[in-house]
Amino acid sequence: MSTFATVVGLAAAVCTTGANLPQLKKAWTTGQTDDISMHMLWVLASGLALWVTYGVLQNDIVIILANAISLALISGLVWLKLQTSS
Amino acid sequence: MSTFATVVGLAAAVCTTGANLPQLKKAWTTGQTDDISMHMLWVLASGLALWVTYGVLQNDIVIILANAISLALISGLVWLKLQTSS
Predict the structure, then answer these.
(1) How far apart are the first and last CA of chain A?
(2) Is it the case that residue A1 has pLDDT exceeding 80?
(3) CB-based contacts of B7-11 (< 8 A; 24+ apart in sequence)
(4) What is the least distance, in Å, from the CA of B32 to any CA of chain A?
(5) Distances (CA, A) of A52 to A4, A70, B33
(6) What pLDDT digit, counting tens, does each position of B56-72 carry?
(7) Number of helices and strands (H, E) in chain A?
């Protein structure tokens, strides 16, 4: 694996994992989550858990870490959604 | 790469890509996207574009396809957000 590809992959992982932060902050501060799809959250959480499993099977620490952090942030969003949705 | 790991990775890719469908459907049918963070959408779209680049560099068709489809779905959500948000 080239160094350039590794840098691109790490930047990609930081973006797709970090993207959950502004969404979580918005839901936390506004207390509004009605427009967020609960189906999306469950399918995404299942997919992230599968990515963590894949990372363990492949012994790939970047895949494990990026997806475990995403899963924690999405779990927070599920919790907020359960608390706030009507 | 073991066959089992490949199956887990493909299932993970299908879930994290497919999770965008119910969100897009919800935003389309309700016309409501206020609770979705625009910062999240932009950072996620940038991350997905980087994943596609990474897939091209690594010559990995699964990474290219999964993230290109996700990027198309997220672009649809950005378009709906721009149309509907106040």
Answers:
(1) 49
(2) no
(3) B8/A50, B8/A53, B8/A54, B8/A57, B9/A50, B9/A51, B9/A54, B9/A58, B9/B62, B10/B62, B11/A47, B11/A50
(4) 6
(5) 24, 10, 30
(6) 999 999 899 999 999 99
(7) 4, 0
Contact call for residues B70 and B46 (beta carbons, < 8 A): no
Contact partners, residue B38, CB within 8 Å, separation at least 6: B78, B81, B85
Q: pTM of the predicted model, to two decimals?
A: 0.91
Q: B16 and A13 in contact (C-beta within 8 Å)?
A: no
Chain B residues within an 8 Å CB radius of A5 = 54, 57-58
Residues B8, B26: Cα–Cα separation, whole Å: 28
Kindly report the nearest CA distance between residue B46 and chain A, in angstroms: 7
CB atoms within 10 A of CB B83: 10
What interface predicted TM-score (ipTM) does this complex get?
0.90
Inter-chain residue contact B16 with A40, CB threshold 8 Å: no
Is there a contact between A74 and A33 (Cβ–Cβ < 8 Å)?
no
Is A67:A51 a contact under the CB 8 Å cutoff? yes
Alpha-carbon distance of A74 to A43, in angstroms, equals 11
- Other Cβ atoms closer than 10 A to A1: 8
Rounded CA gap, A15 and A55, in Å?
A: 18
Token output for A28: 């936390």
